[in-house]
């Protein structure tokens, strides 16, 4: 999946020279080899160590768009009106519900490029995605949370 993401980012940065990509990832030998193979010479793409929680919040606050493989930043993205492309093997239909400014796009290189291109070139589309609200937020009382933990023991 990372190969498809790197290929998509390369194509986007080849076309859109104003785009800067920051990738917080643990730089293992395998990832570095893949990055060098696909992204060599891409001056708009930067690799950084994974963020601590406060660094992540500051970074998300400044980001124009987030591409991730997890849905751990949905509520922050909603509050900041920042679109999130969630790249996962899981089918979009299987996710169900409204995910606010997040779009589950699968892991196809074509999907990654199409979504990025549309968000970069269509301001009205970007705004439409950015202001969507999370509909299916489940709220739990403290007693429900404690009961949930107790039933797992």
TrEMBL record:
<keyword id="KW-0413">Isomerase</keyword>
<dbReference type="InterPro" id="IPR003331">
    <property type="entry name" value="UDP_GlcNAc_Epimerase_2_dom"/>
</dbReference>
<dbReference type="Pfam" id="PF02350">
    <property type="entry name" value="Epimerase_2"/>
</dbReference>
<dbReference type="InterPro" id="IPR029767">
    <property type="entry name" value="WecB-like"/>
</dbReference>
<comment type="similarity">
    <text>Belongs to the UDP-N-acetylglucosamine 2-epimerase family.</text>
</comment>
<dbReference type="GO" id="GO:0016853">
    <property type="term" value="F:isomerase activity"/>
</dbReference>
<protein>
    <submittedName>
        <fullName>UDP-N-acetylglucosamine 2-epimerase</fullName>
    </submittedName>
</protein>
<feature type="domain" description="UDP-N-acetylglucosamine 2-epimerase">
    <location>
        <begin position="2"/>
        <end position="146"/>
    </location>
</feature>
């Amino acid at each position: 999946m990372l190969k498809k993401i790197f290929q998509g980012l390369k194509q986007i940065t080849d076309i859109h020279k104003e785009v800067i990509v920051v990738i917080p990832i643990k730089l293992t030998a395998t990832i570095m080899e893949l990055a060098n193979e696909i992204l060599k010479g891409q001056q708009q793409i930067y690799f950084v160590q994974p963020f601590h929680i406060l660094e992540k919040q500051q970074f998300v606050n400044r980001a124009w768009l987030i591409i991730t493989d997890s849905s751990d930043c949905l509520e922050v993205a909603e509050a900041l009106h920042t679109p999130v492309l969630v790249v996962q093997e899981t089918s979009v239909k299987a996710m169900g519900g409204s995910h606010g400014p997040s779009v589950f796009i699968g892991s196809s290189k074509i999907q990654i490029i199409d979504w990025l291109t549309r968000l970069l070139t269509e301001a009205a589309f970007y705004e439409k995605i950015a202001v969507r609200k999370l509909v299916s937020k489940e709220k739990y009382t403290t007693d429900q949370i404690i009961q949930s933990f107790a039933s797992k023991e």
